[in-house]
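Students often ask why inverse folding is considered easier than folding. One informal answer: many sequences map to the same fold, so there is more than one right answer. In these notes we will look at a single instance of the problem. The structure comes first.
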C-alpha cells in the first residue's frame, strides 16, 4: 500500500524480509573477508543507524562499532567549506575501518569521508553501503559492498528520511 509522508506519496519498494536476507549475505561475506583483520565498523549518522545495528548482528567476528556525523561549516574564506568528523571515539590506528553508509548517490560524502579517514594511520579502508545509485555516481572510489543497486529515484524508510521523516519505517518505499 502507498504511504504519504508530508507532501509526497511513496510506493512499496524493498520489503523488510528482502533487506534482512541481503544483510545476512553481506555480513557473511565480510565475516569471510575480514578473518585476519581487526575491524572497526563506523556508521555515518543519521541514515545508517538501522542498517548498522541489523547488519552487525549477522557478523560473526569480534569487532568495534562507532558512529560519526559529518559536520560542515564555512572556513575562513567563505568559499571553502570545511568538513569534519564528529564523534569518532575509538582508536583506529592499525585497524581496518569499514565505513557504513545508508546510501551513496553522487559520492560527494563518501569522498570526503575517505579523505578524513585516510588522515589516520589505519591499515585499510572499506566501504559498505546499503543502497547505491550508479547513475548518479560521479566518483571513482570503489564501493566494496553494496546492498542494492537502485535507479536514481528518491527512496525513504529503513533509516533514510524525506525531510527528516520516515526513518523508522522498517521497509523501503520509492517516490511515486
Ligand atoms: N532518499 C533519502 N536520502 C537520500 C537519498 C534518497 O533517495 N539519496 C541521498 N540521500
Ligand atoms: Mg537525508
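Output (designed amino acids):
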Amino acid at each position: 500500500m502507498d504511504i504519504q509522508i508530508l507532501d509526497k506519496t511513496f510506493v512499496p519498494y524493498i520489503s523488510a524480509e528482502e533487506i534482512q536476507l541481503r544483510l545476512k549475505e553481506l555480513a557473511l561475506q565480510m565475516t569471510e573477508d575480514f578473518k585476519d583483520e581487526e575491524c572497526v565498523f563506523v556508521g555515518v549518522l543519521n541514515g545508517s543507524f538501522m542498517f548498522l545495528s541489523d547488519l552487525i548482528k549477522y557478523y560473526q567476528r569480534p569487532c568495534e562499532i562507532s558512529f560519526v556525523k559529518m559536520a560542515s561549516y564555512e572556513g575562513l574564506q567563505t568559499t571553502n567549506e570545511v568538513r569534519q568528523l564528529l564523534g569518532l571515539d575509538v582508536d583506529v590506528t592499525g585497524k581496518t575501518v569499514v565505513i557504513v553508509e545508508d546510501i551513496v548517490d553522487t559520492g560527494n560524502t563518501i569522498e570526503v569521508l575517505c579523505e578524513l579517514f585516510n588522515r589516520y594511520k589505519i591499515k585499510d579502508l572499506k566501504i559498505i553501503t546499503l543502497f547505491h545509485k550508479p547513475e548518479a555516481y560521479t566518483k571513482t572510489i570503489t564501493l566494496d559492498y553494496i546492498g542494492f543497486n537502485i535507479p536514481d529515484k528518491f527512496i525513504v524508510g529503513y533509516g533514510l528520511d524525506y525531510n527528516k521523516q520516515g526513518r523508522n519505517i522498517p521497509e523501503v518505499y520509492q517516490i511515486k
